[in-house]
Sequence to fold (339 residues):
Amino acid sequence: GQKISGSKSGKKSGSKSGKKSGTSLKSCSDPPSSVDRTEMVTTPPEDLPIDAEFKGYRRVYQREIVIERAYVAYQIARWYSPSTHRSYESALPKSYQGSVGSRLKSFIQILHHCGDMTHRRIKALLSHLGVNLSVGHISDLLTHSDWVEKEQADILASSLSHSPYLQIDSTNSKEKGQRVYTQILCGELFSLFYTQYGKGRVDVYAALQGKTRGEVSLAYNRFAKERLQACKASKMHIEYFDQHFQEGEAFCIDTLTKIFEQEQIFKKTNQNRRSAIAGALAGGFYYQQSHLPKVEYLMSDDAPEYKAIAQKQHIHCWIHAIRHYRLLNPSIQYFRDIH
Fold:
């Protein structure tokens, strides 16, 4: 038969220490950042010579993960009072967050956002682990749960509080055949994304408050009046708000929509002018609200929806400076060629 040569060193394969593992120890011997459990291996090998002296230990590492179902049943103490005809119960611990615990919620978030798993794939994996959740329930946990919205609001508040500036831009896409616009908010340590059905000033103010366009609040005050004048709203429109709204009075965007539809002076106002009025009033509420920090330094392109939002300074993104150079008409042939 064919002769197969051994290693160049001439050493035979195998080990005198009695280790018979098909996995290279080098791949799993790098020390992790922390050790959760140490197990002592003290059984001597079968071929240990009688004169062998103990020389201590050698440490190797194994990476493992343990995923197990944990159904918790709370036995809630109950009392009944004949005098009040009412039942009383012990308060549940703060760790109780409904039928799905916080660790399982986080696990589902990781599977979907980090593992790119669909809702059905997540359902299949959880079912294999003994946790039965419907696809609809998983969808609610990922998108419409109060705890998700609260966490997002906390992230927005913390980000705006600790960042010296905010950079903002938008991009468009289609969702289920409908055009949508995503406002991208960035700082030194964060990036936030808010998808809206428009990209006007109202949508920008909504994103800065972590809201949708339908949830944004409006207010008529000094700032709103200045913005109405800046966007060249007619005197009749400004007088209408002077007469029907008190200084700082807040109202929802649905109220403004009804005004546009019902009041005669607004019926002939085109959509662009209506959007400008709504943006001015949204700025009025943003100017007076105190539940979220207002942006002091805003960096953006020269899009009109971002103007007059920064409390201190509006900074133009340097990469958009090329737009101005493209408008130039060079008179020297050399510059015409490279233009």
Q: What stands out?
A: Residues 9-25 have pLDDT under 50 and may be disordered. The chain has twelve helices and nine strands. The beta strands are 78-81, 86-89, 166-175, 178-186, 191-196, 217-220, 249-252, 297-300, 313-316.
